[in-house]
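Appendix B. Raw example, untouched.
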Amino acid sequence: MSAPLNGRCDQCGGNIEFDAPDTGAIAACPLCGKDTFLQPAEPAGTSDADEPPSSTTAPRKSRRARVLAVVVIALIAIGGTAAAFFAKRAKHSAGTEDPPAGKPVRSNPAGSASKPDDDPPKDVTPVVANFQAGLSAKSIQRGREVFLSSCTECHRLYDPAFYSATAWANTLGSMRGKAKLNGAQYDDLQTFVKTLRSP
C-alpha cells in the first residue's frame, strides 16, 4: 500500500489526505462535505508563492529600462548643451582679442558703457575738398586711423564737422593723455579733423 497524499479542498481550502490511486477523482471533502477534485499539493520548493508571477517581473524590468533610457538621454542632452555653451563662449572670447597693430577699430568694444539706443559707428572718410589747404593724403589717412582706433575705443564716432573748432581743441587736448597719443599721432588727428571741418 502506498503512503497517503496530501491535497487541498477546492471549496474550503482545508488539507485533506487521500490514497494515491484516488488522485484525479471527485470526492466529498471530510471538512466541508462538498465535492472536490483530489489533487496532490505541490512540493514546498516548487510553490508559485516563492516565484513572483512573470507578469509582474516584466513590467519591473521594462520600467527600469525606461528610467535608465530617460536618464541616459537627459545626460546626453545636458552634455550637448554644456558643450555648445562652452564652444560659443570660447568662440566669443577668441573674437574679443586685440586687433593687430595698424588696423583701425571700427566698433565699440564689448565692455563699453554706451547706451543701446546710440547710433551705430559711422565710417568717417576724409573728403578731398578745396579747404584741404595743401595737407598730405598720408597725413590725413594716418589721422583717420588714429581717430578710428584710439577715439572709438571709448566713444562713438562723432562727426567732427558738427562741433566748433574750440570744442574740438578742448576735446583733443583733454583726451590726448587719456588716449596715450604720441606727438605724431596727435598732429595727424588734428590734421584729419581739420579736413572734415570747413574753415
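End of appendix B.
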